[in-house]
């Protein structure tokens, strides 16, 4: 794993502390952390893609928590210049849902030619209510 990778935070925490100790505001502190850990290295791109492809909602898990986790990963990918097409985002999200959503998801996409992440999440939220 490369030294600047996000997942390596625990291995380099002392080094990181030395880089951010002089920051006197939260925004500058966070910006410095992003600079260190959200580099556009190939290693980071691979790690974020792995997180996205391996994400799976637990059976009876919290839908909102899962949606937020998915959105965070998408945002991390954007920050390292990894573009994910809108339909791919929606399909990856739907595929990441627990098996208990399978029938709903199949009925949701039946007859559709395309779908966006926003549409998929909105339909799921209306189904949950």
Automatic annotation (TrEMBL):
Pfam families: Retrotran_gag_2. It comes from the Eukaryota. This is Retrovirus-related Pol polyprotein from transposon TNT 1-94. It comes from Theobroma cacao (Cacao).
